[in-house]
Specification:
By secondary structure, the chain is an alpha/beta fold. It folds into 2 domains: about 160 residues, NAD(P)-binding Rossmann-like Domain (Rossmann fold), CATH 3.40.50; about 90 residues, ProC C-terminal domain-like (ProC C-terminal domain-like fold, Orthogonal Bundle). The protein has 12 helices and 8 strands. It is elongated, with a radius of gyration of 21 Å.
Length: about 270
Amino acid sequence: MKKAAFIGTGNMGGALLRAACQAIGADQVLAANHTPEKAEQLAAETGCTAVSSNQAAARGAQYLFLGVKPHKMEGVIREIAPELTQGQVLVSMAAGLTVDTLAGWAPKGVPILRIMPNTPCAIGKGTTALCAAPGTAEAHWAAVEEILRETGLVRRLEEGQMDAFSAVAGCGPAFVYLFVEALADGGVLAGLPRDQALAYAAQTAAGAAAMVLERGTHPGALKDAVCSPGGSTIQGVAALERGGLRAAVISAVEAAWRKNRDLGKT
């Protein structure tokens, strides 16, 4: 058996497959997709093996990463269930679907883990949460972490925190892109060429985030260090506060969190 198979190779499944090929070797990875040409393209790109069906993927690998939409997950699990044997593990990427829900569709005793990756995994700078049912073997946790180690940060969470994690890290890149775009628009308004303004805004966001991660300093303290008394930065911060930036971001995370909870109500 191969180490990992990816059933569903869209944007996220394809990104994780590429990372897995780097982490454990392309010779240990299978790809399956409802559009076989996509799996074949990935195989040509990465050196992994494309298979013609979900069942073939289920027969061929120990860890089966299910990269399908929540509403299609039950059908895929029931489709591959007859092919599953002892020692195989299912890894779901679907938002909202709990381990208990997934276990209700799978053969009894098949270990199930959940992951929630975000799109920066495609460039090795992602954040992925990992959870499983109590009593899941440490070997399964460790194997999934090994397969995903080239995606970026991988952290174990309690399942009850997964919807909140998804709202922050899964949806968060879209919120950050809006901010970067707006920051660049402000630069254009002030007279910068568009390409320069976008480059400066993106690098500034990346650098500021790196300061938080690498120094471990609270972002409020880092913000204060930039704000000189009566200076231009505190004027800009005041404008953001008047515009309700923080309240809007908190509301966006809350809205995404509530939607994630609704996705799990099957």
